[in-house]
Amino acid sequence: MNEEWAFPNEATSPGSGPYYVTRFAPPERRNEIATWFAWFSLVDQAVLQSSDPGVTRLKLDWWRDEAERIANGSARHPLGLALTPSIHHPWQVQQMQRLLNAAEDQVRQHSPKDPVELQNQCRDEQAPRLHLLAGECPGGDEVEAAAFYIGVVTRLQRLPLDLRRGYVSLPVPHRDTESALEAGQLGEAGVQLVETAARRLPADPSALPPQPLALLAQHRRIARLLISHGCPTRRLLSPTPLGLLWSAWRGR
């Protein structure tokens, strides 16, 4: 394992949500999980820092090819080499490709036109992460439902950042979303989105694998924080490290 990607790495730095999710994983899986978080961070940064959509899409295409190379043992990127021991089944590559396709959708700034499209986008963005972190072949609807909830909360949390790059990531009933956010007019719509996603969660969340369960617990805490401040807000809100730790511990 390249020490750059081993736990803790930049994507699982102490005090962050991913740090506590990884910290409470079995010791033998921590480096693997930390490496997956590093890859998720790489994909996210490609989207968030995109100044030229064409160039970013080429980067994502490169990683589509690299995912296949990882599976056959011919990876070129240092992170791809670090992920190679974690790839055992074709479904893992399929989930990597699914996440890369969702990232390209964000680069294209395809705004969801209604709650159904929002649900599909959130699932494609978050479910691959949950499946890959869990290390379990996808099956059933529990993880997909958790992905919808996590995706909604993530979009509400990051709405100010998305708006700065001209992306309206939610099907909100306002033409000028940025002005509506400034005026505090999106609170009711935000709460409704969270409640809709929460109703889709499994009756017994403990049926989820440990890593998805810990992430779900952390995002429930984020949702409570957002709602208490008007949901969504003009600034990026995040729970304290202690709150993230407690949520991850309870969600073990």
List keywords for this structure.
252 residues; mainly alpha; Farnesyl Diphosphate Synthase; 0% strand
Provide a concise account of the structure shown.
With 252 residues, the protein is mainly α. It has helices at residues 17-23, 30-48, 53-71, 78-83, 90-107, 115-134, 142-164, 177-182, 187-199, 210-228, 241-250. The longest helix has 23 residues, at 142-164.
Structural class: mainly alpha
Task: Name the shape in a single word.
Answer: globular
Strand-residue proportion:
under 5%
CATH architecture: Orthogonal Bundle
User: How many strands in all?
Assistant: 0
Report the biggest beta sheet as strand number plus sense, adding barrel if it closes.
none
Quick one: CATH superfamily?
Farnesyl Diphosphate Synthase
Order of helices and strands: HHHHHHHHHHH
Q: Which percent bin holds the helix content?
A: 55-70%
Distance N to C terminus: 25 Å
Oligomer: single chain
Low-confidence stretches: none
Number of domains: 1
Mean pLDDT: 90
Using the coordinates shown, work out and report the CATH topology: Farnesyl Diphosphate Synthase
> What is the count of helical runs?
11
Structure report:
It contains eleven helices and no strands. It is mainly α. It has a single domain (10-250), classed as Farnesyl Diphosphate Synthase (Orthogonal Bundle).
List the helices and strands and how they pair.
Elements: H1 17-23, H2 30-48, H3 53-71, H4 78-83, H5 90-107, H6 115-134, H7 142-164, H8 177-182, H9 187-199, H10 210-228, H11 241-250
